[in-house]
Amino acid sequence: MRLAAAASIALAFSAPATATSVYRCVGANGEVAFVSTPCHEGAERVKIRGEPATTATDTPKDPASQPQRPSGQVSELEMAERGNIRLREQRCMANASDAAWRSTNAAISRHQASIAAAERNLARARNNLAGATWDAGLRSQIASDKSAIAQLEMSAAERESTMQQQCRDQAQREIDDLERLRDN
C-alpha cells in the first residue's frame, strides 16, 4: 500500500500544473489517498507545482476563467489511480491463486507420495507368490490416486477462476466509480 501511495504522490507532484484540485484524505485505517474531490469539508488541498495550497472551502474568484478538462479526458492523477487499481487487482489475483491452490497442493503431494510408494511396491509384487493379487490392488490404488489428483486440480482451477473473476469485477467497479466521479 505504501508503494502505491508513493507512486500516486510521485505522479501527482510530477504532473504539470493544472487547475485540477488534488486533496489528501486519510481513511479510517490511517491509509492516505490523493483524490480529485474533497473527502470531507475542510479537506487539505495539496499544492502542486507552485499552486497555492487551499482548503475545500476556498472557491476560485472566477470559475469561468478556470480551464476545464473536456469530458472523458483522463488526468495524470486519474491515470495514477487506475494504475493503483490494476496493482490491487494483480495482488488480489495472486492471492486468489495462492488461496485456491495452497491446500490442494498439500493434498496432491500426499497422493503423489502414495503413488510413489505403490510403484515401489509393484516391483516387490512381481517377486512374490501372491504378487498378481497384490499387483492388481496396487495398480487400482495408483489409478485412484491419479483420479483424485485430477479432481483436486480441476476443483482448485475452478476456485481460482471464480476468485480471480471476483478480483477483475472489483477492479472494474472501482474504475467505473472513478469514471463516474470524473464525469460528475
Provide an overview of this structure:
- It is a single chain.
- The chain is mainly alpha-helical and 184 residues long.
- Helix content is 64%, strand content 5%.
- It contains three helices and three strands.
- A three-stranded antiparallel β-sheet has the order 2-1-3.
- Strand 1 and strand 2 (32-35) form a beta hairpin.
Number of domains: 2
Instruction: Assess the beta-strand content as a share of residues.
Output: 5-15%
- H-E string: HEEEHH
State the separation between the terminal residues, measured CA to CA: 27 Å
Strand order of the largest sheet: 2-1-3
The computed structural class is mainly alpha
Overall morphology: rod-shaped
Number of strands: 3
Using the CA coordinates, give the radius of gyration. Answer: 29 Å
Low-confidence stretches: 1-19, 50-56
Enumerate how many helices there are, as a single number: 3
Percent helix range: 55-70%
What's this entry about, in short?
The chain folds into 2 domains: 56 residues, no CATH class; 95 residues. Helix content is 64%, strand content 5%.
Give short descriptive properties of this protein.
single chain; 184 residues; mainly alpha; 2 domains; three-stranded antiparallel beta sheet; 64% helix; 5% strand; rod-shaped; disordered N terminus
Strand and helix layout:
Blueprint (H helix, E strand, L loop, with lengths): L1 H13 L8 E4 L5 E4 L8 E2 L30 H51 L4 H53 L1
Helix pairs in contact: 1-2, 2-3
